[in-house]
Design a protein that fits this description.
A hairpin with a 2-residue loop joins β6 and β7. By secondary structure, the protein is of the alpha+beta class. It is globular. α1 packs across α4. The mean pLDDT is 93. It is 24% helix and 22% strand. The relative contact order is 0.16. The protein has a single domain, classed as B-lactam Antibiotic, Isopenicillin N Synthase, Chain (Jelly Rolls), CATH 2.60.120.330. The strands form three sheets. A six-stranded antiparallel beta sheet has the order 1-2-3-10-5-8. A four-stranded antiparallel beta sheet has the order 4-9-6-7, with no helix packed on it.
């Protein structure tokens, strides 16, 4: 956990000429992509973040697209991605047990997707004028966040923003939108944002989610006559397309999927 933060810092400290070969403004770029701010257009406030994002699974199919400078990047991030994926799948197994789902429910296509988001929040001379990231819920299944030792993450609870203070050697685990739907609302997606700081902050977010063509719906064993489904069926790919338009407008991306009683 410490090594990836060190190597990530080394990457963002590289000269612009070295980093810019990964830069892309195409939000549909599925390779290794460097960007600044976020993809949402028409920003009302600037989002004070540099971001490197790359696919992690299957590792052997994607690692050659990752940076080879710093020299340790592929080795350190490769090992980390395997271990953090194993941890995420273990947590999903425990969630199965807690919900009463059959063991291994999230294996296969529901956890096929795995990519990493390396977030660099530079020191900001006036943090009151910007945000690191706006309010949002993650569209995938589960997020494991290594947030280092600099605070900045806030979670929304009872209409109040609550700071999530970093704990040494600990992950922040976020329930994502797909897990809320599969659990038929028993689990709630965590809405969160990032505030800027006058000191540099580095975080590594690992997202585990479905493949694009998999059908998402409340788990059949959690639905009954007395507990009807709350959400319609849809493909994850269709959801991601509406998510990137609804979220910047402040709309709940799950609202149009709810079954009206």
């Amino acid at each position: 956990m410490k090594d990836v933060l060190v190597v990530a810092t080394e990457f963002f400290d590289l000269p612009v000429e070295e980093k810019k070969r990964f830069y892309s403004e195409d939000p549909h770029d599925q390779g290794c992509r460097l960007k600044t701010s976020i993809d949402f257009a028409r920003e009302k406030v600037h989002f004070w973040r540099d971001n490197l994002r790359h696919i992690c699974h299957p590792l052997e199919e994607h690692i050659q697209q990752w940076p080879d400078n710093p020299a340790r990047y592929r080795e350190v991030f490769g090992l980390y991605s395997v271990e953090v994926r194993n941890l995420g799948l273990r947590i999903l197994d425990l969630i199965c047990e807690g919900l009463g789902l059959e063991a291994g429910y999230f294996e296969g296509e529901l956890s096929q997707g795995h990519f990493m988001s390396v977030n660099h929040y530079p020191p900001c001379p006036d943090p009151t004028l910007v945000l690191g990231l706006p309010k949002h819920g993650d569209p995938f299944t589960i997020t494991l966040l290594n947030q280092g030792d600099v605070p900045g993450l806030q979670v929304l609870k009872d209409d109040q923003w609550i700071a999530v203070e970093p704990l040494p050697n600990a992950f922040v685990v976020n329930i994502n939108h797909m897990l809320q739907i599969i659990s038929n609302g028993k689990l709630k997606s965590a809405y969160h944002r990032v505030v800027a700081s006058n000191v540099a902050r580095m975080t590594i977010a690992s997202f585990i989610g479905p493949s694009m063509d998999v059908v998402i719906q409340p788990a059949k064993s959690l639905v009954s006559e007395s507990n009807p489904p709350l959400y319609k069926c849809f493909t994850f790919g269709d959801f991601t397309r509406t998510y990137i338009t609804d979220t910047p407008k402040g709309k709940d991306p799950l609202e149009h999927l709810m079954i009206q009683s």
